[in-house]
Amino acid sequence: MKKTLFLLLLASLLSSAVSAQAFLSRVYIGGSAGVSVNSNYTDIAIHPIVGYRITDIISVGVLATYQYTYGKGNDRKANHYGGGIFWKAEVPIIPRTIGLVAHAEYSFLNSNIKEKDKEWSEFNNFLPVGVGLYTQSGRTRVSLVALWDLFHLKQYDSGGPTLRASITF
Predict the structure, then answer these.
(1) Cα-flanking dihedrals φ and ψ of residue 7, to 5°?
(2) What SS3 class is residue 128?
(3) 81-108: b or e for each residue (b if 16 or more CB lie within 10 Å)?
(4) pLDDT tens by residue, 85-106
(5) 42-52, pLDDT tens digit by residue?
(6) Is residue 2 part of a domain?
(7) What is the CATH number of the domain that holds 149?
(8) Confidence of residue 117 (pLDDT cuts 50, 70, 90)
(9) How many domains does the structure of the chain reveal?
(10) Is 152 helix (H, G, I), strand (E, B) or coil?
(11) Which pLDDT does position 166 carry in this prediction?
């Protein structure tokens, strides 16, 4: 009886370990970062992500954002932080090498802004959607996606997209 109970417990633990390993093999991490500096402003940003491949093509995940901006002309400093969720489809053109990406996310950003003697906070929601290309080597994927924020289209005078380059492992 004890032997049977021990074998059942061992089989259960092994099954759980195999299930956990299968789950973790579909998890990926990555993100993007950027620095932009000119004579008028400085912008530094980091955007880490954790995703899960539901299928070989479809994945979902969570993202975080931190961004620091400084406007030299108006002495404006801002710390922006937030997060969100995303959905991504990656369709191979050349298997395990190059493919198309469709991306959509909902994100929010809280901004603490200080300009001269004034301080305030702002909260914004974003809904960027877009398409692009990815290249793959093993588990590593590098993508370049053009995104249009559907919540703030009128703020873009040119109507042009934001380009986002990212890497995942």
Answers:
(1) -65, -40
(2) strand
(3) ebbbebbbebeeeeeeeebebbbebebe
(4) 999 999 999 998 999 999 999 9
(5) 999 999 999 99
(6) no
(7) 2.40.160.20
(8) confident
(9) 1
(10) coil
(11) 94
| Close Cβ partners of 121 (under 8 Å, ≥ 6 residues apart) | 110, 111, 112, 113
Mean residue pLDDT of the chain comes to: 89
Q: How far apart are CA 132 and CA 153, in angstroms?
A: 19
Contact criterion met (CB below 8 Å) for 113 and 121: yes
Residue keyed to tokens 């937030």: 82
- Separation between Cα atoms, residue 64 and residue 73, nearest integer Å: 29
Residue linked to tokens 């530094």:
44
- Separation CA 76–CA 135 (nearest Å): 38
The pTM of this model reads 0.82
Q: The domain containing residue 124 runs over which residues?
A: 28-168
- Quote the DSSP letter at residue 54: S
The half-sphere exposure of 57 on its side-chain side, counting CA atoms within 13 A, is 8
Q: Pairing mode, if any, of strands 76-94 and 128-137?
A: unpaired
